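Milestone M4 deliverable, item 7.
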Amino acid sequence: MFEDYKYENLLPLTYVKPVFELKLGFDSILDKLLSYFSYPVVLVVRDYLVKVELERRSHCQVNSLGDADELLLVNGRLIPRGSSINLIAELMGKHDSFILTDVNGDVAAAKIGSEHVSGLRSVVEENPLGLRDFLIKLKSDLEVFESRDIDLIGYLWDLVDLNSEFLRLDFKRKVGSPGIYCSIDSRTVIYGSYGDMYISSNVEIEGNVNIDARRGPVYIDDGVTVYGPARIEGPCYIGRDSLILSGARIRGGSSIGEVCRVGGEVEESILYGYVNMYHEGFIGHSYISEWVNLGALTVTSDLKNTYGIVKVKGVSSGRIKVGCFMADHVKTAIGCRIWTGKCIGVASHLYGVVYEDVPSFTIYAKSIGLGAYELKLESAIETMKRVYSRRGRVPSECEIELIRKIFELTERERADAGVVKGEFRVP
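Output delivered:
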């Protein structure tokens, strides 16, 4: 699995993670691909992500090809549909080596033998993102296949667009025996077929909860608690040890990751994991990364007043429904309002109305007359430690080192946005 330079299209989400660790449906792109292939796995990532990725995927090699003499290379932006996997498997069975591209010429997958592995080994050691260019140079040596059945994630909004599809696909992939395996309160109301539900045995669901699987499957994982009254609509996934609070509305097309707290309304959105949305608010057509805290009454707009096409980072999405894209460790104050299509960088703090993209490590309070100030690095790290402790975790040295690196990488981003270095003060 490798990244290419188009990971930049998926910033700020990909500052902290390789592109293949982004989530669709129940789990990450990588998790889905690993369920299809049984080979030993090598992950090729940006240099500064190597240590954290080794912690996350201890069973994989990272940026080290070992003694491999034959490799299947898969782009981390590959949309992991069965049709794509079947096409790759078919080509592997028929050809000793090949390159597979989408209709735009982007390399989706390749198979190379020993005559090219040594050259690739040098590329991975010197510049992991150069792997794509290495494959392009091999096009004259290898058979090249172009397919309309191959799709790659190109932009942030693709993740939200694809989520409902993969919630349905993952339900079929993961669930052998659907049904409700826990005891539920007699006042719980079920709509739709039990064949479109999987509720694990150690889930607690109180009375006055509505679960509606008429428009798509509902999967509630181990250790989840749902307080009444609440409503859960499919297709959706609620990850292990998450808490759905009274008054919550989980609308169709939503993925709630592990150890989340959700008390407001979530519609067609991805909450990666360890997201705290304890109070009322609205998250729509958005992607919220790990360790984000959403203050009470935080609202994302996902529709312009004009019903016009939403731009993200200056690029037309071609869609009228787009929310926001929030990187890891972001914190929002009470009553925060985020306009359509906005990108919020790593560890930023938001106050008031957010009407523009916010760089990483920024205290953003322009709408309340307090400007935009750089969040001090040590403050971000100390906050991270406090937040982790509330979930029984301690950040590793690698995670702290990663935060330091991203602060350094995003310095120009803050400077270009006019973020002020200095003390942020509230009158």
